[in-house]
Each structure stands twice: as C-alpha cells, then as structure tokens.
Amino acid sequence: QVQLVESGGGLVQAGGSLRLSCVASGLNLNNLRLGWFRQTPGKEREFVAQSSPSGLITSSADSVKGRFDISRDNAQNTMYLQMNRLRPDDTAVYYCAVDKDLDNNYDYWGQGTQVTVSS
Q1: Would the pLDDT of 16 be above 90?
Q2: Residue 115 in 3-state DSSP?
C-alpha cells in the first residue's frame, strides 16, 4: 500500500520560511515525477512545483518562482518543498504527489498539511 505523509506545515509570519517534507512508503520515489500542489477553500487545487524523474529538472508556478524550491532525497525516499519569503497568499493546504507512470497524471497524493502565513 502506497502512502505519502506530509509534515512541516504550520503558522509562520510573512517573510518567514518553512520546509515541507513528504515521506513515501510502499513506493520508491527514485525516477518518478514528484510534485507539490496547494488548495484554499473554494478554489481548485493548483500546481506549485515539480521535479523531473531524474531530479535534475524542476519547475514551479510563477507565483512561487524564486521563493519555493522542490527537492528530493532518494536515500530517504522523501521529497521536500522549501518555502522562503512566505506571503499571506501562500496560505493553503499543501499536498505532495507522485506520477508513477510518467504520463503527467499524478497517481498518489498525500493527506495535506496546512500552511498559514500571517501578515
């Protein structure tokens, strides 16, 4: 059974930093596409960042570019989202996800972790 478990969310002041972690079990993250998404009440889930299967290429949404960084540790079977210079509009539930078939469809999702940025 595949499980993705996020941690690291919380309350932070604007301008602060948080690092989200997502530990996988039942699935080896090596050579899989990894992603982070976020959602606020009443809105659709939106893309935040992704890592190519090799981990060598990353991309991110314009709204977080230059502030958020996705990374992975294959030895720990864990992905991360480093979030710097946080803003109140970054407040959301953040989800990690895995595209195991490399077809740009994310197959597995974590349960989400709340990030709240106060002004």
Answers
A1: yes
A2: strand
State the Cα–Cα distance between residues 95 and 115, nearest whole angstrom.
Answer: 11
The SS3 of residue 90 is helix
**67: alpha, beta or left, given left = phi > 0 and alpha = psi -120 to 50?**
alpha
Residue-wise pLDDT for 34-90, tens only, equals 999 999 999 999 999 999 999 889 999 999 999 999 999 999 999 999 999 999 999
Q: What is the DSSP letter of 17?
A: -
Q: Are the C-beta atoms of residues 34 and 47 closer than 8 Å to each other?
A: no
d(CA 117, CA 108): 27
What six digits make up the tokens of 90? 């970054």
Q: CA–CA separation, 101 vs 105, rounded Å?
A: 8
